[in-house]
Amino acid sequence: MCEDIFVYLFGYGSLMWRPGFSYTKKFNAYIKGWKRVFYQGSTDHRGTPEAPGRVVTLIKQPEETKDTEEWITWGTVYAISDDEALATLKNLDYREKGGYERHELDIYLDEQSMVSYGKAIVYLATTENEEYLGEDTIDNIAQHIFRSIGPSGRNIDYLLKLANSLHEMGVVDQHVFDIEKIVLELMDRHQINHHNSLVENLSLSSSPTSSMLSSINSLVVNGATTTGTSGSSPGTNSPLLDEKALELLHRHKRFYMKPQGTVIIDQGAVQAISQRAKSLLPVGIIGFTGEFESDALVTIQDSNGSDISRGLTNYSSKELALIIGKQSKDLESLLGYFKGESVVDHTNLILL
Ligand code: BEZ
Questions:
Q1: pTM
Q2: Which UniProt keywords apply (predicted)?
Q3: Domains present along the chain, CATH in parentheses
């Protein structure tokens, strides 16, 4: 009898809620001697090169503390069939190119077990990588996350998705939960919710004050479009926004409005858009709900109904009904005109 051969991949960050690859099974497990921390800078997903966001990596437990403290980190293990592992890891190498490298660590299944279940591949960013930000107070990390945003979306969404995955698993991660608590308080104080507004990353050397954040927030909520640009004195509406920040703000504010519909996509499309370099093609769409015009905001879900992304469509729901599941090369003959090969361009989507 032929035994299935798997490669195990341990996810402790975004892989927990958005793996973006197919797997044979998944289960919870932990690693020993490592701690999940928001010490890695993100210049390509949750921040920009000018103002990096903060995402998680793992730090190794110092030898001298091993007798007194136990460091464990819970995460999700994916069993990937051997024949898909190479392509999956290649895709992840690209997605996690911002300082992360592959390591192999022992995984454990329950807190009593002394014996490793096996080895798993783990992506971690070491202190030597260029984007490493390192330690800071919990308050500073929370404020940093609160004001950061990048091409993949808001840093707060990354934090809240991570915290939520851990709450659902029923495990405690004090570092993550302490930051979550402060960020939720900040969101509450500035009336920022999950969908209708965002704060802009401002390349500030110090944390923004409440009044700064309020003015940024009201700018987004009110949809203001004019303000000071670099080289001129800042406008009264938004004394903080430089040209780059304003452009990012403009590009992102629509993603936090109310979506007009939902587009459901297959696993291949999830993988493609999770890399951020690929657009959503009609061939990857398996369903949609709602009535919307072109240029509408839609939620993008996987086939399990999990929200993966939000994006602006090139095609209306009426057009989508005609091209769903079709090859891009056939769009012109199906519609009688051509509005682009993708339903959502990769530059017009954020990841959740
Ligand atoms: C993770 O979920 O394990 C992960 C994701 C991105 C970078 C590093 C780790």
A1: 0.80
A2: Lyase
A3: 6-135 (3.10.490.10), 258-351 (2.30.130.10)
